[in-house]
Structure prediction request, 387 residues.
Amino acid sequence: VPAIPPSSNKGIFVATIVDDASLATLRAEVRDFLRTERDAGTYRPICDCWLEGHDPAFSRKLGERGWLGMTWPREYGGHERSSLERFVVTEELLAAGAPVAAHWVADRQTGPLLLRYGTEEQRRQYLSGIAAGELFVAIGMSEPDSGSDLASIRSSAQKVEGGWLVNGTKVWTSHAHRSDVLVALVRTSKAGSDRHAGLSQLLIPLDADGITVSPIEVMTGEAHFAEVALNDVFVADAQVVGAVGDGWQQVTSELAYERSGPERFMSTYPLFDALVSEVDEAADDDLGAVIGQMWALHLLSEDVNRSIEAGTADPATPALVKDAGTRLEGEIIEVARSAMSHLGDPSTELRRLFREASLAAPAFTLRGGTNEILRTIIAKSWGTSRA
Ligand SMILES: Cc1cc2nc3c(=O)[nH]c(=O)nc-3n(C[C@H](O)[C@H](O)[C@H](O)COP(=O)(O)OP(=O)(O)OC[C@H]3O[C@@H](n4cnc5c(N)ncnc54)[C@H](O)[C@@H]3O)c2cc1C
Prediction:
């Protein structure tokens, strides 16, 4: 891959990756597309673009190019490409700070969830829309009193003729007010001695009767997540994902996708990229340390990606990627703070990206499972492997 000059808004980390010829061609294609879109003013690079950059029209363009549902079977609208090819596209979109939030959750985890556990009817109903960048999904796991201790959720589904009647409240549901479907984790039978039993996943259209979605504004003034109140919402039997009562096991496997991708270490990459183009990198050891860590995370994340595909992923390694990766995302902000204090006049662009990254940072170690919880998972796994 040719070195990319910093002025093209490409930093040194991605430019140092060594791809084989076909991956290099794909990487170049994505860069060309992104450069054209940026030059046309379709978007400007932002930090935390996979949460903050919600642009359905941009997602549709990615769908048209075959960059959504990349690994899925063609019969469901996918493109049967390798997971490594998907990884390359993901990394380039994040590096460019492109607006990818609209499709992110559906492409990353709902598609694989349905391919693994969904019925044929569900796959036909949802996958091609997701791959086209036209059907967006929100994840309803957390509740007002249940986050880390997810098994304590109180939203429930009661069996009725032909389906389920759902009641409860979900919160921090990213883009629920801009999505079509909610994948909700609910209790379908009372918690017994095994708290993880009796949970199920349901696909619920967000315009169904009985649903109220209330956006929640954050410090930036943006409202990227919402509270979702479910009041006697009828969900047909055909919309249960997998086996009734197996929700915990399904959610656990879904979380491997959620915790291990490059978005867990690249949320502040656009800031780093802008920083590199303004400071003398040779004079700054901190920049080298960031690149080293990012490189290690790239390899680890790629490795998890392969093990997920092979069905051999353990819960600890994705947790490791997210714990180390989100810490690096925060560290980049501190490196930028220090480097910018030595710059006489940081550019407006650099200052904007620094502001955005700083405002987004508190969420990095919380969303997708807090770092304390992830370390517990890692420690337990280490203990088991030594037993
Ligand atoms: C930006 C953002 C987007 C999100 N999007 C979604 C979404 O789309 N869908 C969704 O379902 N959820 C979403 N969430 C919610 C997220 O998953 C929860 O915030 C997270 O799981 C933590 O739960 P909580 O907020 O209830 O905190 P709590 O579980 O109450 O934790 C509070 C603090 O206590 C610590 N703590 C709790 N238990 C332990 C323990 N056993 N040991 C050590 N420390 C502990 C935690 O680490 C944390 O620091 C999102 C959150 C954020 C910030």
User: Anything to note?
Assistant: Confidence is low (pLDDT under 50) at residues 1-10. The first helix runs from residue 12 to 15. The pocket of flavin-adenine dinucleotide is lined by residues 139-142, 147-148, 172-174, 225, 363, 366-367, 369-370, 372-373, 376 (CB under 6 Å). The CA atoms of residues 160 and 205 lie 18 Å apart.
